[in-house]
Amino acid sequence: MSKNKSECIQVVIRCRPLSKKERENGNEKVVQMYSREDKGEIMVGREGDEEPPKQFTFDKVFDEAIGQEQLFEESSRAIVGNVLEGYNGTIFAYGQTGTGKTHTMEGEQKPKEMRGVMSRCFEAVFNCIDAHKDAQFLVRASYLEIYKENIRDLLSPNPKNKLIMHEKPDSGVYVKDLSSFICKNYQEMQAVQNTGRKNKSMGETKMNARSSRSHSVFTLTLECSELGPDGKDHIRVGKLNMVDLAGSERQSKTDASGQRLEEAIKINLSLTCLCQVISALTDTKSSYVPYRDSQLTRLLQDSLGGNTKTVMIANIGPADYNTDETINTLRWASRAKNIKNKPRINEDPKDAMLREFQDEIHKLRAQLEMIQDGKDPGVTMAALGGQQIVEKVIKKKDEKKLKELEEKLIIEKEQIKKKADEERQRIEQEMNMADDEKKQVLDKLRQQEEEKEKSKTKQQELIKKLKKMEEKVLVGSEVMKEAKKQEKELKHTRKILEKENKRRERLEDKKQMADDELLKFNKKFGNLQEELDYVTGKLQKVWQKYQGVQNEIQEQQEEFLRDRQDMYDTIFELDTQLKLKTSIIENFIPDDEVKKVTDNSKWNEELNDWVLKPPKRFQKKKGGNRPVSAVGMKRPTSEYSRIAKGLGDVNPRFKFENILDLDLDMPERTTEDYQGQVSERVSTAINMILNQNEEEQTASVPIENLINFSDSILQEKPVTEKAARPKSAKRLKSAKKKASTLQQLPDDTQETETKASHDTTNPEDIPRAKGLM
Ligand SMILES: Nc1ncnc2c1ncn2[C@@H]1O[C@H](COP(=O)(O)OP(=O)(O)OP(=O)(O)O)[C@@H](O)[C@H]1O
């Protein structure tokens, strides 16, 4: 296959069974699936309905009967092989909330049959590694989530910290400081996934008791080093992204509020961006793809229209009350089928970690050999030019040899100790030696013994390090290779057999149909009238099809209107929040402070947020003038001590003192007490906010209550504060007066009054409520 041939992303559909709740509610199934030859068809709609059912065709469709294993085999197994070849691969689950995305991607650990795509990919990767005898592998794992447009590291001790996405021209998008763990086997990788899963943002909604509130991405990086036809080692790096997207949800169905609503807004916005990217990629007229509009699309940039082999698993529910959402998911999935990627093998990348590991292992082996030969590894390595000596030593992992070496070292260490003990005993028993001489000889002996032991310990440490590094680099075994080969052949034969059976069944069906048709034909065309009926019937069918298409167009328009309404709701929600914040800023934060913050703020693309420019460093205030000494004095001294000394007082406290005049670094004041009249606008804003709060608890509260409420707040303040702010009583009086005036006005006049005060455009007319709060 050509390396850069473009190919469409593969789209498969999975429909879950009716849930217990749906069955209890009496919901009906509206989804039918048919697998035909190499395609799968889906019909959505009920038989008795006026409108004909909607029909879609995909690469593969799976109904509720499909198990986790078969789904993996038929949708994702192939991509593991591709990743091993050095391609990047992405498997992502997309669909409405509660349709089984997490069930598909993660599943359950027990029983084994319930394991999801992710665990099965891990298993497949390590099995493939086992079957590759002549290659070396390094496997790493990382796990992140995008929660409310913030990237979080699910494997970090602080998973709530925000991470930043960057882009490199050669390797594309990457997340800075994302942790990654080297895994030696399936169990280790599964443990990494379990750790991340515990940190994922989950929550209960009306549609799903354990709903993912974030998009999560598990990345498995597989580096493989193999001897190429040129006789040199080549490294391939494949990355497999396993993505569990958060589900789209309609506010009207989930009844979400507060935190859940905020999450839902962000989820829907990022999924809308995903749909826009799909739209742009499949629209031949579109020249711009809005990847940068959301963190999700930025992260999936390579998987959608990039250099990755991608599988999209679209999850749907079968119940009638979700028909609109099901059709919507199928429409986007159907469009995604036309996205073209150009997968390519990542060969010999500069930043391959496996290369670093191999070099380090070679160096350690060389050092070990040199120590054994009695050479100083540092000197010899440098003299021979490092890498050259590394190339000379055994390249292959040889566990047996290392074990022998370890055992030999233990014995040698014991021998050194034994020999030294014997020698020590001999010297101590020596009669012809003076005590001092004995001591000297014993010290020398101890020194020699320590040096020898040190050298052996160093070798032991080297072996330990070497073993640790070699353990991380994986190599397959011959036995496994054979077993895998046989298993593969068996599977292949089974598949061919199944295909043959299916083909035979299809041929028999076709023959039966042709016979039936012939019979019908002979019957129908008995006379001309029957022929006319036949043609009319055909015409009616065409007419029905035409009407079906018309209905489809109408429904698409309705869907579009619904989506638009949803967007309006979202905009309204955001607008309301913005108005509240603007009102708070306008009424309670001084103009110059707002200006200062505005002037110093700038939009940070990486953080997707506003950040303040770093403040200019305060000019260090110069210290006060250094006090000078009086004429004839060595140092500055106080008047009193001068007189005391003059009178002959020898008290040490009248010695010269170190007097320094240091100004205290007092904080600058940024607030001021409000001196003027309270404006209508301020009192109206207070009343409005208090009114809003009260309205949430009771239907309506008389304005006197609000005034009493504000009275009580003021009375609760400490006396000292009251004394410091004599104007507050006056302000309150004015607010009371305003409120009572408003109360006397009819309802619509009040509204106009409030609006008028809001519409005031002359800033001079709006005294700020500085120091009010
Ligand atoms: N194919 C299936 N067979 C049996 N049960 C399923 C299947 N798919 C989903 N379920 C069940 O449906 C429920 C919702 O599934 P899941 O949490 O995976 O949905 P989701 O699409 O990830 O939802 P969200 O987007 O809210 O995270 C779970 O209880 C799950 O066990």
Automatic annotation (TrEMBL):
Q: Does the keyword Calcium apply?
A: no
Q: Coiled-coil ranges per the record?
A: 354-559
Chief location bin: cytoplasm
Family, similarity comment = Belongs to the TRAFAC class myosin-kinesin ATPase superfamily. Kinesin family.
Any idea where the Kinesin motor domain is?
A: 8-339
Record's superkingdom? Eukaryota
UniProt name for this protein: Kinesin-like protein
Which keywords describe this protein according to UniProt? ATP-binding, Coiled coil, Cytoplasm, Cytoskeleton, Microtubule, Motor protein, Nucleotide-binding
Which SUPFAM superfamilies is this protein grouped with?
P-loop containing nucleoside triphosphate hydrolases
Q: An example of a Gene Ontology BP annotation on this entry? A: mitotic cell cycle
Output the Gene Ontology terms for molecular function: ATP binding; microtubule binding; microtubule motor activity
